[in-house]
Amino acid sequence: xxxxxxxxxxxxxASLAPAYFACGEPPPATPAPVEVVVAPVVQRDVAxxxxxxxxxxxxxxxxxxxQVSGYLVAREYEEGTIVREGEVMFRIDPRLTRAxxxxxxxxxxxxxxxxxxxxxxxxxxxxxVAEGAVSRQELDNAIQLQRSAQAxxxxxxxxxxxxxIDLDFTEIRSPTDxxxxxxxxxxxxxxxxxxPNPLTRVSKVDPIxxxxxxxxxxxxxxxxxFRSAAEGxxxxxxxxxxxxxxxxxxxxxxxxxxxxxxxxxxxxxxxxVRGEFSNPDNVLRPGQYAxxxxxxxxxxxxxxxxxxxxxxTQGVFQVAVVGPDDRxxxxxxxxxxxxxxxxxxxxxxxxxxxxxxxxxxxxxxxxVVKPKAAEPPAPAGAGS
Length: 384
What we know:
384 residues, alpha+beta, Helix Hairpins, ten-stranded antiparallel β-sheet
């Protein structure tokens, strides 16, 4: 009889064992919320800026060439300095051209003497023809000699004027105010109109121009603006172009642009545009690298988030949206243009939603977070 009681006791102990061991295990811990920094999706108008790469050039880039042949005897300017219109830059030995001028003056005197004699012959023969003392043939010959003498005098005077011009050309003057370049000819060199290279160049740099290509589509968008600028209408004179120099600094004077080429280049599909900027201190020089930018449109009621809120993986852009219950949803978005440190979002977000800007690597969809508001961003500049 003791055996059954013993068996019942073992069965009872076996049934109580799971409960005993279960009571000894601690309950699973609930993970603590992840601390993150969030920022709201803001909505405001954004100015969109386009940018182009260009090169500076003078408003006038004049090649200084010799118009007469001769030996260079003087250089009257300092390279790299400002020269004024009409200022002498080079001198050519004037002796040959001066001799040519004296000869031309002599030819004019001889032609005037021949014309005087021809005039006297015509005056003398005209009444004698009526009296029959001189034949009509002799009068006709005198008249033809008179006309020939007039033509000879005209040619002699033209040759004298050319000789005077050639003598003036022995002093090579600047055709404009501007910066003089390096001299390509030295004293004693024989120079002339057939030289392949100019003696130097003079660049007028106030105002200075910046040439840059724009696409055909951009030109069609800005055609009315270009037309207003070219016609000098109000609203186009101040200029909407901004110049950014190679060191990143922004030129203090704004400019306006006008098409420089007659048409679109079929090889590149672009149109050359020139922007004109004031350069009162001649700081900018031709050939400098520059970027030209302008506000081309305004996106009304655009949605923006800080750029650091966007994560990119193989061309897919995501943001971590924190819901009202502090749970995370990873959402694919379509970014647009930048505006300072902010990024326009074209699709995927709504105004007022919260996005994670710090700690996005620590969360995934469904993660519960402890959000902390981010510091307000600094005022943004123009969009790009």
